[in-house]
Amino acid sequence: MLEVGTKAPDFELPDQNGKVHSLKDYRGKKVILYFYPRDNTPGCTKQACGFSERYPQIQEKGAVVLGVSKDSVASHKRFEEKHGLNFTLLSDPERTVIEAYDVWKEKKNYGKVSMGVVRTTYLIDEEGVIRMANDKVKAADDPEQMLGALE
User: Fold this and answer.
1) pTM exceeds cut of 0.90
2) What distances in angstroms separate CA 145 from CA 60, 108, 138, one per listed residue?
3) Are 21 and 87 in contact (CB under 8 A)?
4) Is 117 left (phi over 0), alpha (psi -120 to 50) or beta?
5) Nearest Cα to 120, choosing from 60, 67, 53?
6) Interstrand relation of 88-91 and 104-109 (parallel, antiparallel or unpaired)
7) Considering only CA atoms, which of 101, 139, 74, 142 is closest in space to residue 10?
8) For residue 25, what is the enclosing H or E element?
9) Nearest to 31, CA basis, from 71, 84, 78, 90
10) Concatenated DSSP letters for 26-86?
11) Which of 2, 13, 23, 44 is catalytic?
12) Is 49 part of the annotated catalytic residue set?
């Protein structure tokens, strides 16, 4: 996990519609950048739907939400349409940004060890500096906690 107070690495990734976004596009806004394991899994769906429900309030506070996983653009599009998501999902199949933000880690699941995305949320300020970093994310609680962090 990257340290609070450090400059967030810039990136360029396509969204669910194939449009490329970079972090510098969001200068002047706060960015909730969250990394999640997979589209359409129970925890990831709870987290995404929670952000979607709170997105109008998040925008009122001058912030945007960007979700990142290694799923394809097409997978993100299906995820967005299935759940009516109203924010940007970024596709990182090569794990460039996932690794730059230090969220590709060894995970243990039922005693089996594998590499994967550790659910992590960063709050990046208007200048591109990390103000909050959490790698102990509870999917269902994260959207409300991040909305509170924008106060």
Assistant:
1) yes
2) 16, 26, 10
3) no
4) beta
5) 67
6) unpaired
7) 101
8) none
9) 90
10) GTTSEEEEEE-S-TTSHHHHHHHHHHHHHHHHHHHTTEEEEEEESS-HHHHHHHHHHHT--
11) 44
12) no
Instruction: Note the pLDDT tens digit of each residue in 69-125.
Output: 999 999 999 999 999 999 999 999 999 999 999 999 998 888 899 999 999 999 999
- The C-alpha atoms of residue 64 and residue 23 are separated, in whole angstroms, by 11
First-to-last C-alpha distance (Å) of the chain: 23
Residue type, position 131, single letter = R
pLDDT at 151: 78
Let me know: does 32 contact 59? Beta carbons within 8 Å.
no
**Which single residue is written with the structure tokens 């959207």?**
143
At 116, which amino acid appears?
G
CB 121 within 8 A of CB 134: yes
What angle separates helix 42-60 from helix 73-83, to the nearest 10 degrees? Answer: 70
- Any idea what DSSP says for residue 1? -
